[in-house]
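Project standup — Tuesday

K.O.: blocked on the structure for the chain from last sprint. Re-posting the sequence here as requested.
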Amino acid sequence: MATLLKEQITADMKSALRAGEKDRLAVIRMLKAQIQRRELDDRTELDDTGVLQVIEKLIKQGKDSAEQFANGGRPELADKELAEVGILQAYLPARLSATELDALIDTLIAATGATSLRDMGKVMAAIREQAQGSVDMGDAGARVKAKLGS
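H.V.: unblocked you, prediction finished:
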């Protein structure tokens, strides 16, 4: 059974093809290929959470590539990578605000019984499970560390 996110990606690919949006179509095809590769590697069908993980990985790679191109004096390639990242970000859920993130972290610290930095992994796993795609995990990690470290 296809997930809602995979169905949305397929529908967007068809609409980009009909509209002649070559750049958007190329990014969506790359995304579909990465999803299929992951499904073959894992020998399972990805749910929305798995698809979000693929999208986040591609976004991270795109941002890293853009930074490398910018540092290498190739701003046109950096802009192309950032445009691709923008297309991929449209599939992510809305980001949690700082207040919402702090409330989620407090709730999950209590739910997991975390008391020290040794328990940070449990809290981070719970955040990843509950807020996949709507949280910058680097930011969440810093906030959890600050709360558990004090």
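K.O.: great, moving the ticket to review. Residues 13 and 120 are 39 Å apart (CA to CA). The chain is about 75% helix and 0% strand.
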